[in-house]
Design goal:
The chain is α+β, with helices and mostly antiparallel strands and about 375 residues long. It is built from nine helices and 16 strands. The strands form four sheets. A seven-stranded mixed β-sheet has the order 8-7-6-9-10-11-12. Strands 1-2-3-5-4 form a five-stranded mixed barrel. Helix 6 links the parallel strand 10 and strand 11. Helix 5 packs antiparallel against helix 6.
């Protein structure tokens, strides 16, 4: 196929990044937003010798498993994949991927897998489950006058007066820009404005709107990746499903936050607010959090439970983001380990000790190993 050529494709599989996979005369196409069973019209955007990446132009015949995505931004946003596929089919697909990897990479036979594999354990509610979310902060650029510059760089180079005028209009748009938060579009750092992610807890929207309102009212600038200027880079939110405790951590490009008492006033009006912190990160990097954090209100952590075990969670702690499935997963691990109380257990990459302490209910002794000092400190406090 040639670039920009279109073809009708039947989707037979899904790739590791959630893109639909189909073939045209033996040539493999990866097509984002297509699901198994779809017949689609696709346009080749980037071609290799044996495969290419194509854009979904339209669904000719929808799969029996195609559904309307819960999130209106699912196709634009790079935060999640295969929302267009029914959850039952997603579970079937994931189980098949695990089985296929065990055969192809692990070398296990069909007979062995038939004998030992258990059914996949899905969720009753596969949305609103994340207890942690990190939202980049940026701008939606608007024009003061409602007219935007149409001058191109080549035009401005030959017309000094117009160049200055166009730059002035550009500066006006930046000066009147509205702060936004959301998630990055796929394969870019363009923010898709959205305060209501279907994967996070509903209170996230209230928190994000409070922070954005604070920024606008107090003229607090969002961080600009291109210039390295601006104060607020990310908003980290953690939520305790069992305790209903809330943490908000603002990642800032500076040494202090301006008018922090006004921010505290807005956030503490939200029921369950327990911890408000700042983490300084002035590096020109894709790493979200800084190395340290400062508490400006409440506790430096929130607490939550997995089963009967209580945990302290700080802004820099690793903690499983899906507490409902984490409990099921850990209970299965404990069941399969079949501990008698005489074993020493090593938990490698232990984080704040979530698995360590869960297994400690039945082990003789548990050792946790972790490279992040703050996580070990949290793990000791949890113990």
């Amino acid at each position: 196929m040639e670039k920009n050529e279109t073809a009708i494709v039947t989707i037979e599989d899904i790739g590791v990044n959630g893109e639909g996979i189909g073939k045209v005369d033996g040539y493999t196409l990866f097509i984002k937003d297509a699901v198994i069973g779809d017949v689609v019209e696709a346009k080749l955007m980037k071609g290799k010798k044996n495969y290419g990446y194509a854009r979904l132009m339209k669904v000719v015949t929808p799969s029996a498993d195609r559904v309307v995505p819960k999130c209106a931004f699912a196709r634009k946003c790079g935060g999640c994949q295969i929302q267009e596929m029914s959850y039952e089919k997603q579970l079937e697909f994931k189980a098949g991927k695990v089985r296929g990897n065990l055969q192809r990479i692990g070398g296990f036979s069909e007979e062995k897998l038939d004998a030992v594999m258990q059914p996949i354990v899905g969720m009753e509610e596969p949305f609103f489950y994340r207890n942690k979310a990190q939202f980049p902060v940026g701008y939606r650029k608007v024009s003061v006058s409602g007219t935007q510059s149409t001058g191109q760089p080549g035009d401005m180079a030959g017309k000094g007066g117009n160049a200055g005028k166009n730059r002035k209009q550009s500066d006006q748009r930046t000066a009147s820009s509205e702060p936004i938060t959301g998630f990055y579009a796929s394969h870019s750092h363009d923010i898709i404005p959205n305060t209501d992610c279907a994967l996070g807890v509903p209170v996230n929207e209230t928190i994000l709107k409070a922070v954005l309102s604070y920024m606008k009212e107090n003229k607090i600038r969002a961080y600009d990746e291109e210039t390295g200027k601006g104060l607020i880079r990310h908003i980290l939110i953690r939520y305790g499903f069992a305790t209903k405790e809330i943490m908000v951590c603002l990642v800032i490009n500076g040494t202090e936050i301006l008018k922090e008492e006004k921010l505290v006033e807005k956030l503490t009006a939200i029921e369950g607010m327990t911890s408000i912190t700042f983490s300084k990160n002035t590096r020109r990097t894709n790493v979200i959090m800084g190395d340290t954090y400062q508490t400006v209100w409440g506790q430096p952590y929130i607490t939550d439970y997995i089963g009967n075990v209580k945990y302290q969670i700080s802004p820099l702690s690793f903690y499983q983001v899906n507490p409902v499935q984490t409990k099921i997963l850990y209970e299965k691990a404990l069941e399969y380990a079949d501990l008698t109380g005489s074993e020493n257990v090593w938990d490698l990459y232990c984080g704040i000790g979530t698995i360590s302490l869960f297994l400690a209910q039945k082990a003789k002794k548990v050792y946790g190993v972790e490279i992040v000092p703050q996580a070990i400190e949290d793990a000791k406090n949890n113990a």
